[in-house]
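We modelled the chain as a single entity of 180 amino acids. Its sequence is:
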Amino acid sequence: MSKAHELLRYIAYLSAREGARDRESLRWRLVRYGVAVTLTLLAWGVSLMLGSELGAPSLPFAAAVALATWLGGSGPGLLTSVLSIIAIDFSFLPPVGAVELTHSEDLIDIVVFLVVALTIGGTTAALRRARNHLAVSHADAERLAAQAQRLLVKLNPVCIGCDTPDSPPAARHSGNSNRS
């Protein structure tokens, strides 16, 4: 397996790892927001390198928003959205080299990007929450199944003569009947 493939696999399962991080720790917050800034810078670099070949310079930024939200949650996704808007305005909207959010044409582009970014971010965050909930539910189900199995093993010798729906009819009605 190549190093790139291993890295992508690690990143894909990073958000679902249980116990790998403490969500409230300062270190984890710094990592999440650091990844958001890094993804924005990478998207900016890709947009600058590919320029007009992309057609829409905002595409790498939309991918950065999705990745930041998947890996870090809604906060880093929102930070990536804001930084992306600033980078797009600075690099691609006139006057290039300045951040001016005053032209109506530019505002329409920015609002469209923001709506798309927030939609991607919201969908990705919901998917992330559902995946984490599924992982917790799966762990609970496995724990309960193991507990049920242990109880069955303990109770099986006790219930050899029990009247259960699964026992054969002869075993259910033999011997202990006091009918006259």
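As a brief sanity check on the tokenised model: Residues 26-156 form one domain. The chain has one domain: 26-156.
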